[in-house]
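hey so i finally got around to running the thing on that chain from the lab meeting. sorry it took forever, my laptop kept dying and i had to restart like 3 times. anyway pasting the input first so we r on the same page abt which one it is
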Amino acid sequence: MDEGRPIFQQIAERVENDILSGALVEEGQVPSTNEFAMFYRINPATAGKGVNLLVEQGILYKRRGIGMFVATGARERITARRRELFVLEYVAPMLAEAASLGIEPDQLGQLITDQLTAGRLSEKETR
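ok and heres what got predicted. didnt touch it at all, straight out
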């Protein structure tokens, strides 16, 4: 667990990550709050808070007496929200810094391409 963020948010993010990776599928059942609590060794109320956050966002839904399930379209909603956050948290500050350094858009594009290429090369070298 990440000490810097509330545990319930970390639980919600892990469920989202499982949905994005395909480990949890749309209309598939997710572990109960008690199962999350046991697995992560946390209070069931904390696990419930994370799960309920996803219910409020329309990522999960409850079937009374049966359990929690991944909503249809959950993957797309998660992806769209995370893309918006990516732009706000990474792209916008990067563009502002690039502008302050006099880096032109085409130069910035080349820097990004170079970094991606270098990353692919280092991945191949470690295999």
